[in-house]
Fold this protein.
Amino acid sequence: MQELSGLTSNGTEFFAVSDSDNGTLRIQVMGRDCVVKRTITAPVDPYDVEDLAMTPDGTLWASDTGDNSKSRSTVALHKVSPSGAVERFRVTYPDGKHDAEALLIDKSGTPYIITKEPLGSALVYRPTGPLRTDASVPLEQVTRVSLSTTDTPGGPLEGTLDSRLVTGAASTADGSVIALRTYTDAYLFPVPDGDVVKALSGDPVRVPLPNEPQGEAIAFDPDGTLLSASEGAGTPIRAVAGAAALAQPPAPTTTTPPPAADEPQAAPPASSSWQNWPLALSLGGIALVVALVIGLRFRRRA
């Protein structure tokens, strides 16, 4: 896929979408060998699809939210069944136009759109009410996410801006971990109580994704493996096994109160510890991803 922008997985198949629409919404279904097995074609003409999400029942959500030129009065979310039946929901920002490449769907089915901001923090929006097919629904800003510059190589500019621009998002199947990605890194946030807004206000675990020329796609396998991919035909998908566990907090430890002075002291219990995984994961042996360079230059389709 020359312009891969969104990816998701059910554990046996990959689902991928390009931001080249050619008049229809086409979702490619691939085996684990990345060979296309079939195509889900939805009878709708999107403008610029930038991300893809899947709910536990297999429903796909395509985020038609790309707007490099800031020209769209509304953006859209397309809800696609495995058979290709589609519902289009239009939404509007409360504070002007934004370019956005990242979509999250929480456990309740609420969508969250995360913007791609060259200056300042990424903004997070969700609908103010139920989505409708017959009218646009206003969005509300619920939080913002500030990501620090990193030295991870990659991205179309090979500069510091690449490590701060949010280009994709994903959630584990059970909703316990969410991920945001930039061109160069992934950020994992635990969601212990299902509250996405609270989760995005916390401190994430960073997983470097080096040397992806145009890394925009990110997903989780059901087992917690993190998947990432870049634009460009003929390039593989990177898989970071067990990545979701990085965002899980250590199990609580119980502390036995000290014995009274006149009580005999028991031998101390065997100690246990939670092994922190290193943030800079060794990516040797992991399939590298996708890659046709496109100079950021905020081209027609990012």
